[in-house]
Write a structure and sequence with these properties.
90 residues; 4 helices; 7% strand
């Protein structure tokens, strides 16, 4: 399975542990940068972008402490509760 491996920087780690507007600003800015850099890649293009975003968002809120995490376009895109139950990897 193809995977995009992401290494959180210090802003990501700090914001992931917060709640509120600041957290969401960092969350969206980081996702927008990831998307802008990788969306034209053949492994990503026209694939499960919503599922990849949900994997990213789950890791942002609940896995920000990890040294790295992966998002994969071939994973299913279930409800967010399933993401939480499977530790962001349905």
């Amino acid at each position: 399975m193809w995977s995009l491996s992401l290494v959180p920087n210090s802003w990501f780690r700090v914001a992931g542990g917060l709640n509120g507007v600041a957290e969401e600003i960092v969350n969206r800015q980081a996702w927008n940068q990831i998307y802008a850099k990788h969306h034209a890649n053949g492994h990503w293009r026209d694939r499960n972008v919503n599922g990849m975003f949900n994997q990213y968002e789950c890791h942002f809120h609940f896995g920000f402490w990890k040294s790295a995490f992966n998002i994969e376009p071939d994973r299913p895109n279930p409800d967010f509760g399933t993401y939480l139950k499977t530790r962001c990897n349905p």
